[in-house]
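Translate structure to sequence.
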């Protein structure tokens, strides 16, 4: 089809999801396309992955070897790393705590690249009549007592128009522990909500060291922000400390601030690539642990 449109285009072979060793053997399981553009370079295209994905080459296959079938011949090559910002996840929340410990508010998630494709799977693999339940499940998985009052989203079929966006209105009874003098809770956005779309959170951090390279689904950047209105807030009793960690291949920055009667939580996790060396495990693991720390340490505030 590209040739019919006047492009120079040829097939290329790869091994989807795995590596190809530098030996002459049948190590391929997937045929893709290369096209020469006006910059004079060949660019990879993968028609298999294009439906419902906002990129023409799957960055879930970065750092993966491929062999072009071009007239001049080609050696084994490796697909480039895709910047984490190309696969961002943004989680934004606005909520308010009630005196009885009920949390009311809205949380939204938007994403791009392979993160977009992952979240769009809530719609892609099921009929429209269960889309609400698929979204609701992300809240109920952590708070079974939650009531999702409304779920909005942009048209998941028109994936070329805009990145995916989902907004969830909710109320969660007994969200906070309430005593006569204090309230104890973990902000909704600090908990592992939408965990299934944050591949790094599914790694077992009990593993102390690794003998072999390991891989995530894709490079990724997760940005979280939530503001919680607490009209009856008297004073902070215990607020988890801010954490800043800047590594070579992964980083984390997160913490709280209080503005008048509003508690604000912000966090950013950056994972720079898909395939990591075993020596990079301590740094990768450290970012996961630091993000998880905010889902384990509650906020304690004085209310009287």
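Result:
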């Amino acid at each position: 089809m590209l040739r019919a449109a006047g492009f120079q285009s040829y097939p290329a072979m790869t091994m989807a999801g795995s590596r190809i060793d530098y030996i002459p053997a049948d190590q391929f399981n997937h045929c893709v396309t290369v096209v020469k553009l006006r910059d004079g370079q060949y660019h990879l295209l993968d028609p298999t992955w294009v439906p419902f994905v906002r990129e023409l080459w799957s960055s879930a296959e970065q750092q993966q070897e491929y062999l072009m079938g071009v007239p001049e011949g080609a050696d084994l090559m490796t697909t480039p790393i895709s910047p984490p910002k190309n696969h961002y996840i943004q989680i934004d929340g606005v909520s308010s705590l009630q005196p009885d410990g009920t949390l009311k508010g809205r949380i939204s998630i938007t994403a791009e690249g392979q993160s977009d494709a992952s979240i769009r799977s809530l719609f892609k693999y099921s009929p429209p009549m269960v889309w609400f339940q698929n979204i609701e499940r992300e809240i109920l998985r952590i708070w079974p007592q939650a009531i999702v009052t409304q779920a909005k989203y942009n048209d998941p079929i028109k994936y070329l128009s805009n990145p995916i966006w989902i907004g969830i209105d909710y109320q969660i009874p007994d969200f906070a522990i309430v005593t006569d003098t204090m309230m104890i809770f973990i902000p909704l956005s600090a908990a592992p909500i939408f965990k299934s779309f944050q591949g790094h959170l599914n790694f077992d951090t009990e593993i102390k060291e690794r003998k072999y390279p390991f891989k995530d689904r894709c490079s990724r950047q997760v940005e979280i922000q939530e503001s919680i209105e607490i009209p009856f807030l008297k004073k902070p009793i215990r607020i988890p400390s801010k954490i800043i960690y800047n590594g070579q291949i992964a980083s984390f920055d997160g913490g709280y601030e209080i503005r008048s009667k509003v508690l604000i939580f912000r966090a950013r996790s950056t994972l720079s690539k898909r395939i990591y060396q075993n020596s990079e495990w301590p740094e990768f693991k450290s970012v996961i642990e630091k993000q998880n720390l905010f889902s384990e340490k509650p906020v304690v505030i004085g209310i009287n």
